[in-house]
Design a protein that fits this description.
Chain lengths: ~160, ~725
């Protein structure tokens, strides 16, 4: 049995320690927001947060995560879809098929926590997710919109 | 707030309550045991397209699949426009293919491809809305005992003019449902549209930003097992043997099964366990006759076709050979386009449950009816004893419409575990090696210019693969695949945009044993590169400006000329670009729409290409949702430019060499240029928007590169092209 803290809740997992976090989330916990697409940490569809950092959960083994570490998935990003990034995404209709979007949203949320007003270069460096529908122009606009929503929220 | 679209059994969705609001959703289940009649699930349907619930919620049925392209919202807009309903109360649902079959295909085609979603069904879905509206107003008029002509409707509210009495759609829907539908309805002039034609928000965004959207890969059914599969990596090869005993004791493994004669699958409690066991499973393949096929052997065969005698003619105007013989100047070039994979973000998958009496499949399909046929065939049951539940697709791009190999496999596995639902999910590696690839072709173009710098003759010889020969041989015409000529045809949805006095376009068909498929944009992708890049080469040889040269050939193609002029003007063609930046143009007609692009690119001394800006114009005739068209245009450049920069599936040992996004990269945000979309609907026709602009993406950029370097690029992808020191 491994112990994890996922979306604020302590859970016990009966799975091999080598099982990637992605499959623990999806198959043991029923949290299917994080997606499988490449399985080798390249595309970012599986992105979740561990202690606030964006990680590609398909290459993070269960055994490497401590019980005290905070794992947050798209389901736990906000209780009601009201995180600034989710608001911006809704406002601009960013998703097309939507499969990669939970991963992109988690990556952007972590970026904005680290860089509240990211430069274009920050975006280019930190947001490396693959989207085959091609939502990148709206993703970029969505990031800037989320920055505004965050700033408004603080005043 | 609009609700998500799911299959009609949505009332049976049991979504486990989230633990402490943090979203530990432990029970996301779809129903087993068959569907009920649509009407029984809801308030009575007014007609096949419209159900109105007592609270005035309007449920619009959508037969085509939503895979990101926005058709779901666009079709709902068209129905709602004629229905005169309150858009804020609209939700949607997919009818099932089995239900459609049982009702004499009342919803028409389920096929979602060829940019047909809107243009292929706009008339009957609008009529569906208009018929429902008429029946609802008639029901109100009858209840009031007043003449129909005295009643009017807006936003789901029916008003009797003389008395001012009102009622709502929800109140009269029950009575309307029993009425005989009118034989004729009049559709609105698009100029009078209030919902259609507007940039309304998508109906399916909310769940896509919270992770609540259920994709087929996310399905969980009670008692479900999970399967991973490996098919013979060599095209045409077969499964020889496997050592099931060596993995049977691995964690979670329930079964090791042969799937037809080509693949082996492992069924386990979880997919991760199934995949682990499959990785450990010793398998022997009978690689068959294609084990020696390589990119080089294919290229050689195609090159021979560039000058061979055997060729199907796609377009002939005048006498190209004589014109070329008499031309003052001859230009010749050979271009080529590689195999490419769709690489949908959601890997191929399907969930099946089989018994001797019934087979059900849950899958992300672009064609529910074709999926049902595949299910029935694989299940050994009549279609009336099968059902397919469509789930939102994590990308389609043509991969999920014509083949359903994953559906057949899932059913074949489920047949060996009767009564147990099994979800089959491919690995990315399996997806990369068992695609339905963008076909491979080469083209030899020979053009003749007269003494005044005018194009007098052109011969385009295409050599290579036919999709229809493999996928739909019944659609060949006397052996010819006319789809091969998309963008070069004399007329129709993919007509050439130029009047060339003497023109010959022909095709030497050569079909390597690599399965081709419809790939977003299909054959227009390579044909637009061949023609548009060669036009620039011809303009260069004639000493003329590429825009001016094109305009001289387009007098008979005013719609195409209009989009070309629009991008040229907005991009500032003729005025200097920023230092080091060069422009390239491309224009074509595709999927009945007229599209053009102007790209601004630079090439640094190390040969690095940067795409700074794309200006793209589209005339789709009627535009149903401008903001979604813009999204499609922007996205089409990611698809087209990823193909240009990186897209290649090379063949060695009879198999695709690429395995994942490391060897088959896709564009990322850092490389994405700004796309400025010009939407210029001229009315009068219905063109598609999901694909057309892909075709102009690559040639516009390539023409910019040629302008920057003075060297044409004739082979893709660009990652192989050395532009150093250019």
């Amino acid at each position: 049995m491994s112990r994890l803290k996922v979306n604020g809740e302590a859970v016990e997992i009966d799975a091999d320690g080598a099982t990637p976090l992605l499959w623990v989330l999806r198959e043991a916990l029923g949290l299917t927001g994080a997606k499988y697409s490449c399985g080798i940490g390249l595309c970012g569809a599986c992105t979740v947060h561990i202690d606030g950092q964006a990680v590609r959960s398909c290459v993070v083994p269960l055994s490497s995560i401590g019980a005290e570490q905070d794992v947050v998935t798209i389901e736990g990003l906000s209780p009601d879809g009201s995180h600034p990034v989710q608001q911006a995404w809704t406002e601009l209709d960013v998703p097309q098929c939507g499969y990669c979007q939970p991963g992109i949203i988690m990556a952007v949320a972590a970026l904005l926590d680290a860089h509240p007003a990211p430069s274009e270069a920050d975006i280019d460096t930190k947001i490396t997710n693959i989207c085959r529908c091609g939502t990148f122009n709206r993703v970029r606009r969505g990031i800037h919109r989320a920055v505004e929503i965050r700033q408004r929220g603080r005043t | 707030m609009a609700r998500q679209t799911i299959n009609i059994s949505r009332r049976n969705f049991l979504i486990g309550s989230a633990a402490s609001g943090a979203g530990l959703s432990l029970g996301l289940y779809l129903p087993l045991g068959g569907h009920k009649a649509l009407a029984a699930e809801h308030a009575p349907e007014v007609n096949a397209w419209v159900v109105i619930e007592p609270d005035d919620t309007v449920v619009i049925r959508i037969a085509r699949s939503e895979m990101g392209q926005g058709t779901l919202t666009g079709l709902a807009q068209l129905v709602a426009e004629e229905l005169e309903c309150d858009w804020g109360k609209v939700t949607t649902e997919y009818p099932t293919p089995g239900e459609s079959l049982a009702r004499d295909r009342v919803w028409g085609s389920f096929a979602t491809g060829g940019s047909q979603g809107i243009r292929g069904s706009h008339r009957y879905v609008r009529e569906g809305g208009a018929v429902a509206r008429t029946m609802l107003i008639e029901a109100a008029a009858e209840a009031w005992g007043v003449p129909l002509a005295e009643c009017r409707v807006a936003n789901s509210l029916i008003t009797h003019g003389p008395t001012g009495r009102t009622t709502t759609y929800g109140k009269v829907a029950g009575a309307a449902a029993g009425r005989v539908p009118p034989l004729e309805v009049e559709l609105k002039d698009p100029r009078d549209w209030k919902i259609a034609g507007q940039p309304v928000k998508r109906l399916d965004t909310a769940d896509k930003v919270t992770g609540a959207q259920v994709f087929a890969a996310d399905l969980r059914l009670p008692g479900m097992l999970n399967a991973a599969i490996r098919a013979c990596p060599v095209f045409g090869g077969r499964l020889a043997s496997f050592d099931a005993a060596s993995v049977r004791d691995m964690a979670g493994v329930r079964a090791v099964v042969r799937v037809d004669d080509t693949a082996v699958a492992i069924v386990a409690d979880t997919w991760w366990q199934a995949k682990n066991a499959l990785d450990a499973l010793p398998v022997d393949w009978d690689e068959g006759p294609n084990a020696g096929v390589s990119s080089a052997s294919i290229a050689q065969w195609l090159t021979e076709g560039l000058t061979s005698e055997d060729a199907f003619v796609g377009n002939r105007v005048g006498d190209a050979k004589s014109a070329l013989d008499g031309a003052a100047k001859i230009v010749e070039a050979v271009y080529g386009y590689p195999y490419q994979n769709h690489a949908t973000m959601e890997p191929m998958n399907a969930t099946a449950r089989w018994t001797a009496q019934r087979c059900e499949v849950w899958c992300p399909t672009q064609n529910g009816e074709a999926a049902l046929e595949a299910t029935a065939e694989a299940a050994g049951l009549p279609m009336s004893q099968c059902e397919v539940y469509k789930i939102h697709l994590g990308g389609g791009f043509g991969r999920r419409g014509a083949f359903h190999d994953e559906v057949r496999q899932a059913v074949a596995i489920a047949r060996q575990l009767a009564g147990t639902p099994v979800k089959l999910l491919w690995t990315r590696e399996e997806d990369m090696q068992h695609g339905a690839y963008h076909p491979i072709t080469q083209a030899r173009l020979v053009g003749g210019i007269d003494g005044r710098g005018e194009l007098v003759g052109l011969h385009v010889r295409i050599s290579g693969q036919s999709i229809l020969s493999s996928v739909r041989p019944d659609a060949l015409k006397d052996g010819a695949d006319m789809l091969v000529f998309q963008g070069l045809l004399p007329e129709g949805d993919h007509a050439i945009s130029y009047r060339i006095p003497h023109l010959l376009v022909d095709h030497s068909m050569r079909n390597p044993p690599v399965r081709p498929g419809f790939w977003r944009g299909v054959n227009i992708n390579q044909n637009a590169i061949y023609l548009e890049c060669f036009i620039d080469e011809l303009a260069d040889a004639a000493g003329r400006d590429p825009l001016d040269f094109r305009r001289g050939l387009m007098a008979e193609h005013p719609e195409a000329l209009a989009v070309l002029n629009a991008v040229a003007e907005k991009a500032g063609w003729g005025s200097p670009a920023a230092r080091g930046v060069h422009r390239g143009l491309a224009v074509c007609k595709a999927f009945a729409s007229y599209v053009a692009a102007c790209a601004e690119v630079s090439v640094d001394p190390q040969g690095q290409v940067k795409i700074h800006r794309i200006v793209a114009a589209t005339d789709p005739g009627h535009a149903v949702n401008p903001q979604q068209i813009e999204a499609q245009v922007e996205g089409s450049f990611v698809f087209g430019l990823s193909a240009l920069l990186y897209g290649e599936c090379s063949i060695a040992g009879g198999r695709v060499e690429q395995r994942n996004f490391d060897t088959y990269p896709s564009m990322r945000i850092a490389e994405m240029p700004r796309v400025e979309t010009i939407l210029m609907p001229s009315g009068g026709f219905w063109g598609g928007v999901g694909e057309p602009t892909i075709a102009v993406a690559a040639p516009a950029v390539l023409n910019g590169i040629r302008a920057a370097t003075g060297r044409p690029v004739r082979r893709l992808p660009l990652k192989h092209v050395d532009l150093t020191g250019a």
